[in-house]
């Protein structure tokens, strides 16, 4: 029987994109109770509607900076998935807030998880910890050269997780997500990811803006697969591990744009602008080998299929907002 069946599960950032899919997956895996903790700075309660309807999930509005509240929420938990974080742009604007939410907040979660003697903590890390590639694909032993405040916070989280794994014999797995996409992506706020920006451009009848010659690349991994990797991390024997969550496929931005135009049946085309001084490396894709070996994880949803799901969901989500 899975460690999830009958478990009490806590998901921080549980109303967000990835967190809400983990909530769904934990409910589907037979968890007795799933508690989504979220300060609702980016996530929205609608993301949890299907899980809340089962009667086995609930949303608690809570800030991970609140040490006592985190300790109380984690008391009696069996498993913790820690997703709460700020967007990287917010971290650049407000480094101290980033430190407080993402480093001190993670410390609160680890401390409370150790006190509650939970069976596993799964931490959301990011491929941005790698920085510019010295080799590709990025494997987990690649140097961590990330140069943003967000990357520094994620690297700190991984090491705090490792320290707690050893100090308290607390099983901790950190997952380095690559570019996550799919239903429940943020489609409303000031900063949206490139796919959403391009879908908005298609709606407005304006060309998709690419930088340079569009040859920059990324590794897109579908959000349902990311939730699946979290569940595998919780059920695996891994106790002190750092693992990529990626598709292993390098996608050029101009190919992504072309696929979106095809799926939308749009002829708005693309426009190319000079590359602004950017924070992200020109090429990025991950090595999925360790995830397969340690977690038995392999990304299953290919980009075209995942984009189709995103387009469909976005249409309904925007329709609901307008209604
Ligand atoms: N989306 C990606 O491409 C990607 C890539 C790498 C890593 N990650 C990491 O994965 C995790 C999930 O990302 P996501 O895309 O679902 O982001 P998201 O913004 O949708 O979810 C994060 C959630 O955390 C909540 N939150 C923020 N500050 C909080 C606080 N102080 N207390 C409690 N909750 C708070 C937000 O309201 C939001 O619902 C994050 O840790 C993120 O850094 C995401």
- Radius of gyration of CA atoms, rounded to a whole number: 19 Å
Q: What is the C-level CATH assignment of the domain at 8-181 and 221-247 and 285-301?
A: Alpha Beta
Uncertain runs: none
End-to-end CA span = 44 Å
> How many beta-strand elements?
13
**Taking strands numbered 1, 2, ... along the chain, how are they ordered across the largest sheet?**
3-2-1-4-5-6-11
What is the count of DSSP helices, taking H or I runs of 4+ residues?
A: 11
The shape is: globular
Structural class: alpha/beta
The CATH architecture of the domain at 8-181 and 221-247 and 285-301 can be given as 3-Layer(aba) Sandwich
Beta-strand level of the residues, as a percent range? 15-25%
CATH T-level fold name of the domain at 8-181 and 221-247 and 285-301 = Rossmann fold
Question: Can you tell me about this structure?
Answer:
This protein is an alpha/beta fold. The chain has a domain of 218 residues: 3-Layer(aba) Sandwich (Rossmann fold), CATH 3.40.50.720. Helix content is 41%, strand content 18%. The chain contains eleven helices and 13 strands. Strands 3-2-1-4-5-6-11 form a seven-stranded parallel sheet, with helices on both faces. A two-stranded parallel sheet has the order 7-10. It has a two-stranded parallel ribbon with strand order 8-13. It is globular. The chain binds nicotinamide-adenine-dinucleotide. The site of nicotinamide-adenine-dinucleotide (NAD) has 27 residues, from helix 1, helix 5, strand 5 and strand 7.
